[in-house]
Structures are given as C-alpha cells and as structure tokens.
Amino acid sequence: MPPPPPPLSAQPSVRAAFSGADVFITGGTGFVGSVVIEQLLRLVPDVGTIFILARPKAGAAPAARLDALLQKALFDSLRVGATRASAAAGVTDFKTKRG
Question: Mean pLDDT score of the chain, rounded to an integer?
C-alpha cells in the first residue's frame, strides 16, 4: 500500500508549482480552460510559456478562437489597468506567440 499523501500545508502552492514552468493546456478556449489560463497569468506572474492546443470549431480557425478567448471579460483585469505589469505582459506574449 502506498504511503499517505502529505498534508495540504506541506504541498507547494500553485505559484510555487508553476513558477518558471511551461504549461501545455488542451481545451484552453473552453470554459474551464479559460479560467485556468487566467488564474495562471494572474497568480503566477513568472509562469513560463503557456501553450494552448486549439482546434477549428464551428467554422472558426484556432487563431480566431484564441483571439475570442482573450477578448473575454475574464481577462480585463490583466489587460487594462492591470495591477501586475508582468501579468499584462503575459497576456500580450500569450497572444503574439501563437504559430
């Protein structure tokens, strides 16, 4: 039988776990994925590159779906009047590094 997991207080925080890490997200343009991306950008300002696997859907190309994702009100605090400049820069990098 495996040993029990460590108590929650001994586990790393989200910031510690993802600091400097590159993250690959599938379903990033969906409801849950968009929240995960926003949380990473807001809570972990020094997160590495966020890679998003986006597929064409309902006649929209992946690039158009990413543009629509970043236009959501969810990302407003990261774009305009952001309290963390690095988080705002993360949204810009996220948008421009697709390929």
Answer: 79
